[in-house]
UniProtKB/TrEMBL annotation:
SUPFAM superfamilies: Cytidine deaminase-like (SSF53927), Dihydrofolate reductase-like (SSF53597). CDD domains: Riboflavin_deaminase-reductase. This is Riboflavin biosynthesis protein RibD. Substrate binds at S186, R202, R225, E325. Pfam families: dCMP_cyt_deam_1 (PF00383), RibD_C (PF01872). Residues 14-140 form the CMP/dCMP-type deaminase domain. GO terms for biological process: riboflavin biosynthetic process. NCBIfam families: eubact_ribD, ribD_Cterm. InterPro entries: APOBEC/CMP_deaminase_Zn-bd, CMP_dCMP_dom, Cytidine_deaminase-like, DHFR-like_dom_sf, Eubact_RibD, RibD_C, RibDG_C, Riboflavin_Biosynth_HTPR. It comes from OM182 bacterium BACL3 MAG-120619-bin3. Its cofactor is Zn(2+). It catalyses: 2,5-diamino-6-hydroxy-4-(5-phosphoribosylamino)-pyrimidine + H2O + H(+) = 5-amino-6-(5-phospho-D-ribosylamino)uracil + NH4(+); 5-amino-6-(5-phospho-D-ribitylamino)uracil + NADP(+) = 5-amino-6-(5-phospho-D-ribosylamino)uracil + NADPH + H(+).
Length: 393
């Protein structure tokens, strides 16, 4: 396999970045393909020079459905021998729910395969590249697209490389950093557009994690509401699989206080409650609550270990991405434990005053040097509110 940077491409390869960019765009047609990665593929005639025509395009819509490469091959108007396939992820070489994509590309007579990321799945991990090369197909790795390709599948990479999902934590606050009035009233700080944006965050995740206090205070449903996603007819078809398999709802409930009648339990879809191992763990067999036991986090207050919960969601449910939608206590614990990979804060242009509740329950920071620092990734206006996307430094 030859690794190339964009600046190293020759005149015949000048259109390659444009084709790979298109493949990334195709992969992003679905919110999620979990537990599989989102993958896009563009097949171009000949050496994929500028002017060479695109023969076929495809992307993977989710587990059990064909992978991006066979979709692009099936969509191709004709498949000239000597064509080039641009794939955002190394083609697979194993037979899972579908056949190996490396074989499909070889049989289709593709001469060149250009990839933007290598597959971390131990069943592939270079095997797809080796199979293609063994069949005489040239393989190129376009290194400048690796970040974009990994970003598409940051949850998939996190689950396979770190054995835990990518964690996004979402919070909403007033301009003065308050999440509710002193009496707890908080509906709604942000506007309808921000709330519909949160629906998109839910559509991208495989599990929504909340704390028992939020459930007791608000009785939220934590469901995916299709009508608020603002999708057109085509996007609805593409995302059919995700919409019919909404994210798992997870309640962290160390002491077993979750009621069987809570909306988070009774709404259609799966709900799992994590309780502290050894705590009030007797659950009637007929209970609609699926209980899992987790070890103690080992801190002064006995609570379930967040790392164990994440590892269990990755292992037992193949969760790639988790969205934490909790109050100040649990969100603060996730941040303090260094388990938040992305923080999204919606800021409403309102002042709730100093009696209001703070954004995060974190204490014990005495020196400025102890401050937990973030880097702003993006800033955008969503309706009347501001959305800030941050990464831990
Ligand atoms: N502004 C926002 O974006 C937003 C979002 C969601 C909720 N809220 C508001 O937040 C309020 C509730 O906030 P809250 O801080 O009281 O509750 P919370 O963060 O939702 O839940 C906290 C509870 O989670 C449980 N938990 C289990 N394991 C934990 C761990 N390792 N670390 C921390 N907590 C753990 C604990 O109860 P056990 O020890 O019993 O397990 C803890 O008391 C509600 O009024 C809701 O409206 C605001």
């Amino acid at each position: 396999m030859q690794t190339l940077r964009n600046t190293e491409l020759d005149a015949l390869q000048a259109a390659w970045p444009q084709h790979m960019q298109r493949a990334i765009q195709l992969a992003a047609s679905v919110f999620s393909a979990a537990p599989n990665p989102r993958v896009g593929c563009v097949i171009v005639g000949g050496n994929a020079e500028a002017g060479d025509s695109v023969l076929g395009e495809g992307w993977h819509q989710g587990a059990g459905l064909p992978h991006a490469e066979p979709v692009a091959i099936a969509n191709a108007i004709r498949l000239a021998a000597g064509s080039t396939a641009f794939v955002t992820l190394e083609p697979c070489c194993h037979t899972g729910r579908t056949g190996p994509c490396s074989s499909a590309l070889i049989e289709a007579g593709v001469s060149r395969v250009v990839i933007a990321s290598k597959d971390p799945n131990p069943k592939v991990s270079g095997g797809g590249i080796a199979a293609l090369e063994a069949a005489g197909v040239e393989v190129f790795f376009l290194q400048d697209f690796e970040d974009g390709a990994r970003r598409l599948n940051r949850g998939f990479f996190s689950r396979l490389e770190r054995r835990r999902p990518f964690v996004r934590c979402k919070l909403a606050m007033s301009l003065d950093g308050r999440t509710a009035l002193a009496n707890g009233e908080s509906k709604w700080i942000t506007g309808a557009e921000a709330r519909s944006d949160v629906q998109r965050l839910r559509a991208e995740c495989d599990a929504i994690v909340t704390g028992i206090e939020t459930v007791l205070a608000d009785d939220p449903a934590m469901t995916l509401r299709q009508a608020e996603l603002g999708l057109n007819a085509q996007q609805l078809v593409w995302n059919e699989l995700r919409l019919s398999n909404p994210p798992l709802r997870v309640v962290l409930d160390s002491r077993g206080r979750l009621s069987e009648t809570a909306k988070i339990v009774t709404e259609p879809g799966r709900c799992i409650a994590y309780r502290l191992d050894g705590a009030n763990s007797s659950v009637e067999a007929s209970s609609p609550i699926a209980v899992r036991l987790a070890p103690n986090s080992g801190e002064s207050v006995s609570r379930v270990s967040l790392l164990s919960v994440l590892e269990s969601l990755a292992e037992l449910d193949e969760c790639n991405e988790v969205l934490v939608e909790a109050g100040a206590t649990l969100s603060g614990s996730f941040i303090e434990a260094g388990l938040v990979d992305e923080l999204i804060v919606y800021i409403a242009p309102k002042l709730l005053g100093s009696d209001g509740r703070p954004l995060l329950g974190m204490s014990g920071l005495n020196e400025l040097s102890d401050a937990i620092e973030f880097k702003v990734e993006s800033l955008e206006q969503v309706g009347a509110d501001i959305k800030v996307t941050l990464r831990p430094r």
